[in-house]
Design brief:
mainly alpha; 2 helices
Length: 44
């Protein structure tokens, strides 16, 4: 991403929104992994 894009408030907003989406995906994946691990531990 170049400086002109960052100077543009809409591009900045989209960029931050994209980061938030990535963070929430990672959070959901982490929660899912924890649940799967818990289920596997119960079976053992």
């Amino acid at each position: 991403m170049n400086l002109k894009e960052i100077e543009n408030p809409i591009a900045e907003q989209n960029f931050r929104h994209q980061l938030e989406i990535e963070e929430s995906k990672n959070r959901q994946r982490a929660i899912a992994n924890r649940i799967v691990a818990r289920i596997k531990n119960q079976k053992l």
